[in-house]
Here is the input.
Amino acid sequence: MIASANQALTTRLPFDDTQDVEDARRGFLGTAQDNLITDATGRTVWDLDAYGFLDGECPDTANPSLWRQSRLCSDHGLFEVTDGIYQIRGFDLSNMTLVEGERGVLVIDPLLTAPTAAAGLALYRAHRGERPVTGVLYTHSHVDHFGGVRGVVTDQDVADGVPILAPHGFLHHAVSENVYAGTAMNRRSAYMYGAALPKGGRGQIGAGLGQTVSTGAVGLIPPTRDITRTGQSETVDGIRMVFQLTPGTEAPAELNIYFPDHSALCMAENATHNLHNLLTLRGAEVRDPHEWARYLTEAVERFAGSCDVAFASHHWPVWGRERLVRFLSEQRDLYAYLHDQTLRMLNQGPTGPEIAEAMRMPPALERVWHTHGYYGSVSHNTKAIYQRYLGWFDGNPAHLWEHPPVEAARRYVHFMGGADEVVRRARQSFDEGDFRWVAEVVNHVLFTQPDHAGARELQADTLEQLGYGSENGTWRNFYLTGALELRDGSIGTPTNTTSPDLLAVLTLGQLFDALAIRVDGPRAWDADITVRFAIEDQESVTLRLHNGVLTHATGTGPATPDPQVEIALGETHLRDLLVGALPPTDLAASDGVQITGDAGKLTELLGHLTDPDPDFAIVTP
Here is the structure.
């Protein structure tokens, strides 16, 4: 049934429209001679040939629309956007843009990891000469747009005057997103990008926004120059730029860039060749589609009339003034329609899932490829808008205090005649093609009896079918990874974006907050521990664990209790202690550290912390 549905799409969708194929290949100058990108240890972090199978015919096990998108995203190499502007594409999930200046080159969004960024820069130099990097610009606070910075510049380069530009609020959002909920996001990202799936017609074929994520070292060099307002102009190495701040769109800190001397507009990740996420499946704060649409309108009004090309940090550019205005306007209408129609319907009473099921997009938008849900989807974006305005509760009191999954599953399975009977009936539904229902009811069996062989086999087969039919790359990856874990066990977290660089730029307050979310509250209910850090050349900080809550306060105000231990030390030692690099038992022997009081109280306090689990279960309890 999935195969026939996929086949039907080949006649329903406009596959005769080849404009994207032409645009994706326009300006191609060449690609790397070595298809494997490796790190300093020789480990492969990216394989340029991994998606060569996409040159073949789309199999029945893949949605032909997603196959087409993945084929376009898999083109890799150096591309000329316009005179003086080039892009590295297909070397990572994102694009790296290079703008030539008077002495060197400005790098925009240096990919996710250092090895891929370095390989991209080497390819650029092989075609354009050994130009030095004279500036770096981060368009927004997501890690695939800054994590490879150490592949293009060093700390010494920045100390010597190479500027790093970023939107206001970049650093706060870049580190907080990847540290506070980083373990859960990284685990779910393994599902979202299909990191452990084999690549091929029955496995991972892409993520819609790009192919997948590289697995090299993630770094961060803090910005040296903030962009704080729309209309702000900056010149780097003779390159003139005018900025538009777009906070709360695709990222909480983001900007677009107009290049007046190139008649070019960089849209960061605000207008790409797909419907983007309003709530990414790995987890994040819900984005604001109303503001997103408004900023796209502003970009058209401010810049489009004097631009000949629009490009972004994913996918391929759009050339021609008329075409780019239409593209940006359709992207604007996409987010505005979802926002307005979701609000219209929720005010008539339907819940998020009901609205998602009823939502239909305008035919004019459905006819153009760049509005399709390859990364975001109409379904989960609609639910995200509902969540943004009304939260998790749908207003039905029957849903106000439901049993958690395992307890509910036991009762469902009991009511339905037991696990074996549920699986028997579910197999009938599977044969009828009702895969969504099978996934729902067999999930109850798995949360009652996670080792039920028949349920695991049927659920894996079901998730596989749902994946094969999905136009959305991340849905496909989630379904197929779930099937993989049911058959072969947990894949864990293959990639981790919480790097030493990210930890190094956390403020002390953020580090203390990161400790607080690791406190085992129930085990610490009766604890009352106060530790004061007298930090060299800074105000002292007092930590108190009380009522299962770890709080911190600077100074020594009247509400700050007397410490049971006071530790005088430098910030470096304190940071090492807080991130686990310096055991508390070694602190007293460290240079410049003085401890007054009961040193065991620090160890006692840290003993109430738990470690996050990067291998937590998803498809089983």
Summary: The mean pLDDT is 96.
